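User: Um, any thoughts?
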Amino acid sequence: MNFDGTWQRIIEHSGEIFCAVRNLEFTYELIEDCMLPYRDGNFVGRKIHRNDFQYVFDNGPYTGPGDINQLVQGPSFVWAILNDTRIIG
């Protein structure tokens, strides 16, 4: 599996509802190479760059967002997206 294909699926599913580990629903939009997460329609306040997703993709597997907490911005969002069946296939 290559990351470019994964990133393309992340782009394709922008605006859809995803669920973090603790069942907190969120959506996201992409602006350039950054993902902007939203909960209840409100911007969460951090942009997550494509490189954060690629780092986790390239260096996993990880067992949960706690494993990447110190490695990337928005670990719960990154984890949820990269482990969703729409993204991983």
Remarks:
- The first strand starts at residue 18 and ends at 19.
- Residues 3-12 form the longest helix (10 residues).
- The mean pLDDT is 95.
- Residues 3-88 form one domain.
